[in-house]
Design a protein that fits this description.
By secondary structure, the protein is an alpha/beta fold. It is built from ten helices and nine strands. The strands form two sheets. The chain has a six-stranded parallel β-sheet with strand order 1-4-3-2-5-6, with helices on both faces. A three-stranded antiparallel β-sheet has the order 7-8-9, with helices on one face. Bound molecules: pantoate (PAF). Pantoate binds at residues 32-34, 61, 64, 131, 134-135, 153, 156.
């Protein structure tokens, strides 16, 4: 059993440790998470292994959950997460208490307008403001060289990249591919909420995305590919929030004449009471 990571709860201490590493010329890779780690997170940790040291934050961020969302019941599994991270050779786990990030009189929020507005932004008002705010705080507490995010939260990666550019954060962003179960379901900490019957039905999300990709790659236009995606998902009575073919950077819907340009299919839907998102690059 490898030595475990150092578990740090204090922002000043993690900042000091990471700064000491980077000023001595080490590259530090940072994987921000909300815990409940699965193979998707571990693939980010593995990618961060390109750096000399890896730091993983575990913090269930209250400001990115809307009223009535699953903040209180979000899985919190710090002990088993730390065991996984020990096996993965992580040097530090940063697991701050809520008041270290949000003191009582906290009054500051980060808003990234353009890419936050559509899709998840419409269905979860305030979500990306919460994400941008916490990632901004985490980047200032963990001054790493490179940060790693999963492509499953595609819109989040666009928002984070824009924030890093606009606020000139001295950090590189790497986006890693979505990890899927053998049947295609994207790994998500929220999959634990699914009953076995819902788990079967949830596969329709990735199957729908694959149908859109096949249609697109065979010359279908955005409307036809979207219809193919909705048809597959519709067979499983999933309550769809959105299913769209968009530009991967601007997130604007593609018109029918844009075949040949980069495109990504985005989907969000409720399987029972569990809301899942997924996406697939089409080109
Ligand atoms: O993707 C996540 O797990 C979260 O949104 C993040 C980036 C850790 C911010 O809380």
């Amino acid at each position: 059993m490898p030595d475990g990571p150092l578990i740090e709860r204090n922002p000043a201490a993690i900042r000091r440790a990471v700064l000491e590493a980077t000023t001595s010329g080490r590259r530090v890779g940072f994987v921000p998470t909300m815990g409940a780690l699965h193979a998707g997170h571990l693939s980010l940790v593995e990618a961060a292994g390109d750096c000399d040291d890896v730091v993983v934050s575990i913090f269930v961020n209250p400001t990115q959950f809307g009223p009535g969302e699953d903040y209180t019941r979000y899985p919190r599994t710090l002990e088993s997460d730390c065991r996984l991270l020990a096996d993965a050779g992580v040097r530090w786990v940063f697991a701050p208490p809520v008041d270290a990030l949000y003191p009582d009189d906290d009054a500051t929020r980060v808003t990234v307008d353009g890419p936050s507005q559509r899709w998840e932004g419409e269905h979860r008002p305030g979500h990306f403001q919460g994400v941008a705010t916490v990632v901004c705080k985490l980047f200032s507490m963990v001054p790493a060289t490179t940060a790693y995010f999963g492509a499953k939260d595609w819109q989040q990666t666009v928002v984070v990249r824009r924030m890093v550019r606009d606020l000139a954060f001295p950090i590189d962003i790497v986006v890693c591919p979505t990890v899927r179960e053998a049947d295609g379901l994207a790994l998500s900490s929220r999959n634990v909420y699914l009953s076995s019957e819902e788990r079967q039905r949830a596969v329709a999300l990735s199957a729908g995305l694959s149908a859109a990709r096949d249609c697109w790659q065979h010359g279908g236009d955005a409307a036809t590919a979207t219809a193919a995606m909705r048809a597959v998902i519709g067979e499983q009575a999933i309550d769809v929030d959105y299913a769209a073919i968009v530009d991967p950077v601007s997130l604007e819907p593609l018109s029918d004449s844009t075949q040949g340009l980069p495109a990504i299919a985005l989907v969000a839907g409720r399987v029972g009471s569990t809301r899942l998102i997924d996406n697939m690059l089409l080109s």
